[in-house]
Amino acid sequence: MSHRDPSPRTLGPDGESHPIYQLKADLFRLLGHPVRVRVLELLRDGELTVGELQAALELDSSGMSQHLTAMRRQGVLESRKSGVKVHYRVKDPRTFQLLAVARQILTSQLEESSAILGDLSADPEAPAAAPGTPARDASAAAPDARRSVGRRGARA
Q1: Angle between helices 61-73 and 50-57 (to 10 degrees)
Q2: Ranges for the HTH arsR-type domain (predicted)?
Q3: pTM confidence score
C-alpha cells in the first residue's frame, strides 16, 4: 500500500511539483549563508551592480557570482543587464519583512538572555568566577575555596 503525502504542493523554481514545506526549507537554506543575507540587506535601498555588491562584500568575482546565481535561481533576486553591467534587485519586497521578523526574533532572544544573565549576576548564591578570571564580587566566592585544593595542587 503506497503512502500518499497529503501536504500541499506547489511548483518550485525548477518547474516541478514539491511539497510546500520542502520549498520553505530550500528558501531558508538559501538564506542560511551570511553573505546572502548581507546581499539582501545591501539591496534594501534598491538595485546594485555586481561590482558594487562585490566591493561592499569584499568577495572575488567567482564567489559573488555563485551567490547571486543561487539567489536568482531560487527566485529571490532578479537581474537586468545595462550595457556591460548587471544590476540585481530583490524580486519580492516581502523578503525584507522576513528579514525584519528574523531581527525581531533574534533581538527578543538576546534580550531574554541578557535578562537571565542580569538575574544570574545579581544572585548572591552564584558561584565565583572561573579560575583565571577576576571575581566581580569577592563576597560571592566560595568561603572554603582555599580548602578545595588537594595535596598536589589539583582541585578536589
Answers
A1: 120
A2: 16-110
A3: 0.65
